[in-house]
Predict the structure.
Amino acid sequence: MDVVVLNAGLQYTGSFYPKVSKQGIELTFAVNHLAHFYLVNVLKDFISDKEESKIIITSSDVHDPKSSGGNIGKKAGLNNLVDFRKKVTGQFLNFSADEAYKNSKLCNILFAKELEKKLKMSSSKISIITWAPGLVIPNDDSGFFRYSKRFNLFGYLIFSKAAKNILGISESIENAGKILSEIVLDANLNNVGFIYLSNKLKARKKHKLVESNVSDEANSDELASKLWILSEDICRSFGFVTLNI
């Protein structure tokens, strides 16, 4: 069984200015999407084409403007990629950290759907699984919200205490990790093509992983193809040319 887990992610909500990678790419897009895109292209030939092989990408329900988290603040939306390159490189037009994160999660799903389509052309058995772990709030300074704490520590503390202890809507790091390991090992998720799973809140402090629908925008085959081409172009622009899918 060969499994690639793309779980790296960051968010720095609260900043009015973009953080940038060494290649000049807005950091949320670079880490949450572009790094995943490049790694899969590099690793593809090392993944056995077997029914139990999986590529797992951690996304989020906030990719959907209609979701409970996605409809708060700036909403995800790629506007058919009009001026999108300028939003993630160079000019960083009308930058919003909140929007950048939600858009990166939308990119995760569009990438996964286009990847599955390309693999299907060669009758591949590799499953492309995207999943949303829910709101996972770490207890230390090295976790997912490490940048948000720096920009708005007071707001973060209020939010995290309310989400975990009062509202009970967050998921623990331990449970999120357990769910991910179960996805890796679940034989029912072998050779499924593309699937989106969401760790839905069912009651206070109780979640359940279920197959879910993605947003209308995430369902656009045309947009998925355009994002793939743009991602290839950006990778090539800073010398990463080993793209073979």
